[in-house]
Write the structure tokens for this entry.
Amino acid sequence: IESQFVPKLYMGKEVLITAGPTVERIDPVRYLSNDSSGKMGVALAEVARDMGARVTLVHGPLQVPVPDGVTAIPVESSEEMLREVTSRFELLDLVVKSAAVADYRPKNVYSEKHKKVHGPLTIELEETTDILKTLGEQKTHQVLVGFAAETERLEEHAAAKLKRKNVDFLVANDVSGSDIGFGADDNEVVLFSGDGSILKLPKQSKKELAFELLTYFKEAVR
Ligand code: CTP
Ligand code: CA
């Protein structure tokens, strides 16, 4: 839909979206990351803006531009993303964590470019902080939305994540196929709500999907 015809359901609301991959440094020129394009998060930011919200987008490297009128906070690591999101959390009405946050990061980061003369290299990985779970523990009035990428037993895994992270909604992606999800322009998801309801949303553009999802989330925003 054209932005001027979008219902202004989010007038006066503060929305924060995270998007894209995180980048976990090994040394100054090498890192671990993933294939997230950031398209879903950017679509959510754009549509939330069109729906009247003040939108902050905390993002790793994106394959699409940040929409006009959205406050962009670029970050690299999961640790930076955690900081930028938690420091703003109190003032927010809705947080949508569509970023593909790294689960692991190198335990030791070399301050200089690692040299081959040292021979074979073993990189020890440690777990990153779960940003969504941290927010779930801190939340008061905020509506919290997580994403989940699953390749098997989607319903079981998604329902478990919803509970474990204390979120209001979980948007589950079946990433076992390849024409939806990472990098694609379309997406097909299942929306799990805290009240136990499950809604399958048909395959559609990420922008159309963003509009549908934000309309559902609004029901829970005070
Ligand atoms: N997430 C997060 N911080 C992390 C890892 C994930 O905030 N360190 C968030 C993601 O942004 C997403 C949700 O948690 O909204 C679910 O991510 P997902 O990778 O599906 O689940 P995990 O809990 O990381 O479990 P696993 O990867 O083992 O399935
Ligand atoms: Ca993960």
In short: The longest strand covers residues 143-150. The chain has one domain: 3-104+126-218. The helical segments are 39-50, 78-86, 131-138, 154-164, 206-218. The chain is about 25% helix and 30% strand.
